[in-house]
């Protein structure tokens, strides 16, 4: 007999979903529907809501692609969202019921993108324990993120300290809540020349998200002689400050614009933030480590946190 009633998310559940996300111990604002649904036309949403004895127990952002259940490839991370009342025993049963549900719905495989522990408000790895024992989940990919423990105050590497002094001598001015439209051409040019890539968000998309989450998305720009020379787009995620986008032009590189912004952010504007997350430094799905990029991040005092994705075959699970 199943312990959980599993229902697909529907638009009329938005308030209930968002209310749960607001109290979940391992959620960030990425899981509010106003963020998840900005690109809903790209994915077939298959987010799930788990009920126990008629009460909403937990939720799982997800989408479907053929016979594969993803959690969630349109987001940086995903997985089961849990409040403080969710127990390990509950989650063990939940994944048993989930496998039965997914098999009935015609799925053959699950790709499970876990939430790195650094984003947890309280310990929240019940899902990792459960998918190992109940789903025979295997590690599919592992990405190297870089995180600073802010209260450790690790000294910047010599080259970063030198460029910070240069930014001060060059009169670099840092502006919080700067213009996204001014920064975006610099960002796009950087990504194109370095990685032959584009930002995940278009300018129109990031401006839309900024309008929906004005406190959570913060743009810092650096100026020299009133001309923008670089910028950083931050996501404020509770006790984590996540660097979503960064870029400088040639003048910004020469005058330490990035160091000026990080100095302002790390030592002045966010005294209560515990972690500064630089994101991952991988290419080809994690296979290639961009040593130059991660070396740059580690120079500020960051060290590795893993971003893991797991997989299992639903059809192979004994139910």
Mean pLDDT: 95
Q: Largest sheet, described in full?
A: 11 strands, mixed
Low-confidence segments = none
Number of strands: 17
- Global outline: elongated
DSSP strand content: 25-35%
Strand order of the largest sheet: 2-5-6-8-17-9-14-13-12-11-10
What's the tally of helices?
Answer: 10
Helix content: 25-40%
Q: Which structural class fits the helix and strand makeup?
A: alpha+beta
Question: What does it look like?
Answer:
This protein has 319 residues and is an alpha+beta fold. 33% of the residues lie in helices and 30% in strands. It has 10 helices and 17 strands. An 11-stranded mixed beta sheet has the order 2-5-6-8-17-9-14-13-12-11-10. Strands 1-3-4-7 form a 4-stranded antiparallel beta sheet, sandwiched between helices. Helix 3 crosses helix 4. The radius of gyration is 21 Å and the shape is elongated. The mean pLDDT is 95.
List the helices and strands and how they pair.
Blueprint: E1 5-8, H1 14-23, H2 33-36, E2 44-45, E3 48-52, E4 55-60, E5 63-65, E6 68-71, E7 81-82, H3 88-104, E8 109-113, H4 126-135, E9 138-149, H5 158-169, E10 173-176, H6 180-195, H7 203-212, E11 217-224, E12 227-237, E13 240-248, H8 250-255, H9 257-269, E14 275-280, E15 282-283, E16 288-289, H10 291-298, E17 303-313
Parallel strand pairs: 6-8, 13-14
Antiparallel strand pairs: 1-3, 2-5, 3-4, 4-7, 5-6, 8-17, 9-14, 9-17, 10-11, 11-12, 12-13, 15-16
